Amino acid sequence: MEWDWRFLVDLQNADIGTILESFKVWLAERWGEVTIRVEAVRKVLDPVVWIVGSLLALVPGSFAIYKWWYYHESRLPLRLAEFLEKEEARLHTARNVLLKNIERPSLAKTFTAPIFLAPSLKEAMRNMKLARWWNVWALPSADKSLETALSEIEKQMEFWESQHAHYKRQEAAALLLRGAIAAGKGTAEDNKAALGYFLKALAIDESDIEALEYAAHQRRVLGELDEALADYEQLARLTNKPGAEAAEVRIRALRYQGEIYEKKFDRDDVRRNLDKGKERLEKALDELPVEIRRELDHAAIHEVLGRIEDKRRTKNLPSDNYRAAKNIYNDLIVRKRGLAEAEAGRERVEKCLKELEERNSRAEASDGGPAPDLSAN
What is the residue extent of each domain of the chain? Predict the structure, then answer.
């Protein structure tokens, strides 16, 4: 190829400014054409890009919704059921493999012969993929795999046992709440329903102190005194241990037993019930810790014990207990604590003291001396 030297000379002699100006004009024309074409294409592509972008943005959200739906708590039992169904099928297959390879005793075989033969057992382990086909040490390899699997199974069982216990506690709590709602309605039918809920919660855990106390209270409401006594007796046994919280529940259980034994005496006129009531209430007073000595409970124990001693026809113990209760009520009134209950309690014991004094006065007037002490004390 030969160069045109005249052209080179012309370029060399040309005005550079003119050439650059011409190039700028040409470039501007070309750029204007490109801009027009790009704008036309953009108008077509913008809706498509928006749609594609929106779809791509929806993919993670859709996947998250799917995951939420698939693994949502309400569907977990279904997922677990499907998993267990597959595992049961696999275990059934594994057990069938062993069943086919067992060597059962017969007339030709003694009972000391092995029930599984190594060659057939090796083949079974390979079929169950517990050992590779090329592994000559099939049984040791399978044994190692099974050891690892058993260790993992034990961990899973511990986890599921803790989960099972957790769900049982949740179930018991829900039953107690339903029982509380039913008991709050107050009708005889609702009271029976409430007791049913409390007993169901107690069936989940026989040592559930709250469920036992609620059931005992509800039996008392329903007039099932013997059953309530048994529940309170069990409650007292369960709480006979160190700790202020347990002691507080135990004192209540003993107090309520004393009250029920008094009711049983009023119903059946069996003096033995008064003796049992006295024994429970005195035990409650003896075991009442200073740190949990709730004044209203303390006063109530003395008040009930005063009534029981009065019905036992003891000489001084009724008035002694009434006055002890009155002193506690007075102290609460002065300190303005539990005013309504304290004032009502003081009014009751003052009435009992007055009736007791009048009865003793009449007895002394008619007999010419003080009333006899009929108790064994």
Answer: 18-71, 294-360
